[in-house]
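Quick log. Single chain, no ligands specified.
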Amino acid sequence: MTTEVDVAIVGARVAGSVTATLLGEAGHRVILVDAARFPSDTISTHFFRGGGLGSVLDRLSLLDDVLALGSPRLTSEYNFRGTDASPMVRGPQNPGTVGYCLSTRRLPLDHLLAERARRTAGVELWEGTPARAVRHADGRVTGLAVDRDGATHEVKARIVIGADGRGSSVARWVGASVERREPATRAMYYRYFTGYRGPGGSWDGPEFSAIGDELVYAFPSDDDLACLAVSINLDAFAQFRANPESMFGSRIAAHPGLAPRFAAANPETRILASGPKDALVRQPSGPGWALVGDASICQDPWTGLGMDNASVHATFLAEAVDAWLSGRSGEREALDSYRRRRDEHALPGFDATADLGRDLSRL
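-> predicted structure:
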């Protein structure tokens, strides 16, 4: 069976769902496929800024839905340095017009975004539908083959978009080149807790505690949960792999600004991990295809830029593709503008993440 649309998107999490929603609202026919079913979880950062994903959620009229999950408005930030147990307090990072930051687990957040795409006229969401290959003709990508209901289904599209993460199959199938690579220098472990509150009982801002080349985080999140995390170098990673439970507890306990409140909190999940991975900048587009989100650019999670980049770049790509499909520009011109906007927005953060991530004692 064959379905013909304007846009086929692989990956229905932040980047894919935002791109699909905006293109559907612009009047284009979109098929959005994902091997997963929603709600489902993924290893990810949780923190995002009002000027990043927060502004995109507002544009999609989803900000109130995220707040309804119990995610507190993060209007402050608490920073601890060394063994000082008293924080420096400042305002939120890049709050934008929204005015605050948020931290939300991916399980409910991705579900909200996928359902928003599903509700959009012109968009079909196919869950539990893995993509298997792209199709080519006359030197360009012309569609996608997927597994649907136990059979191969062909999707003809004017453009195929890979929003399928750092290990993007679409990037591999189209032969997207890696334009930048920074070697892995860090890993991250995190866990959810109840009964945790910020300094003085606050619940209004993330905490960052830096000791040497180690950074501990606490993010007030949805459903009255706190996400506590630790970013470590590769030497410490070898020790964590051998005994993550013991190492996670001992490292956070070594940060006096958080230790007493950490000791009083209750772990609600197992420890989750994001191991060392090279940071990548990929060629973002070619004839009949484009990449967005981590498929396009990804860096170590210690700076928490992933969801902000994915959502903002999705707006850039949707606007570029709409300009082409609507006849306001040529395909190459539109996709070149997407590249320029992506690079201007993301490369400074990519460089800073890689540079400072080699030794956080320089913070």
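The two ends are 56 Å apart (CA to CA).
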